[in-house]
Amino acid sequence: MVTLSILCVSGPNLQLLGAREPSIYGTTTLDQIHQALTATAQSLNATVTCRQSNHEGDIVTWIGEALGTHHGILINPGALTHTSIAIYDAIKAVSLPAVEVHLSNPDARESFRRRSRVAPACLGRIAGFGDASYTLALAGLVGALRRQST
Ligand code: DQA
After folding, report:
1. Is-contact 106 100, C-beta < 8 A?
2. Is 56 exposed, middle or buried (0-12, 13-18, 19+ CB in 10 A)?
3. Which of 23, 35, 64, 125 lies most in the core, judged by the most C-beta atoms within 10 Å?
4. Interval between CA 106 and ligand 1 midpoint (Å)
5. Enzyme catalytic residues
6. Ligand 1: residues whose CB is within 6 Å?
7. pLDDT tens by residue, 58-88
8. Listing from the earlier edge strand, what are the strands of the sheet with 98-102?
9. Interatomic CA distance for residues 7 and 72, integer angstroms
């Protein structure tokens, strides 16, 4: 079985997880989420490279660099979900399977969170399960990649 390489990118303000609005996002830190992803990846015969930036350009660059390096992408674009055509374009440009991840359920919150600019470039979306959204999304993405290659 091929070891799959996954890129996980988190966007603005997600470095504050643990302290940021815990009633919405929980108390798990981004480092703890990255540790859980690494353990889950290992059990799925995959590896995960985790990054976070508050800058749209970094995220666009990392998605571009994923071509030829990673098999798929997990992305929590944070607030850029609702605005970033550049991230949509970057995912379309590399044509890698991507899963949009959210800790909260944006559809159950303010109306401005109901539109995702990124979702139409993605294979699927996992939202509303707190920190578990990330590991659920990883399992979904790895399963899809394995099915693709059989
Ligand atoms: C979020 C949801 C977004 O609407 C918000 O701007 C975030 C976090 C989430 O993970 O629930 O920064 O992406």
Report:
1. no
2. middle
3. 125
4. 7
5. 25, 102
6. 13, 76, 78-79, 81, 102-104, 106, 113
7. 999 999 999 999 999 999 999 999 999 999 9
8. 46-52, 4-10, 72-76, 98-102, 124-127
9. 6
Residue 128, both tokens:
């509303």
Ligand 1 atom with minimal separation from the 25 CA: 11
| Tokens 């890698």 sit on residue | 96
Query: In total, how many domains does the chain have?
Result: 1
- Using only C-alpha atoms, the chain has a radius of gyration, in whole angstroms, of 14
72 DSSP β-pair partners = 6
What H or E segment, with its residue span, contains residue 47?
Answer: strand 46-52
- Which CATH number fits the domain that encloses residue 33? 3.40.50.9100
Nearest to 143 by CA among 127, 124, 128: 124
- Structure confidence at residue 48 as a pLDDT band (50, 70, 90): very high
Structural domain span for residue 15? 4-148
Task: Quote the ligand 1 centre to 103 CA distance (angstroms).
Answer: 7
Give the whole-angstrom CA distance, residue 86 versus residue 83. 9
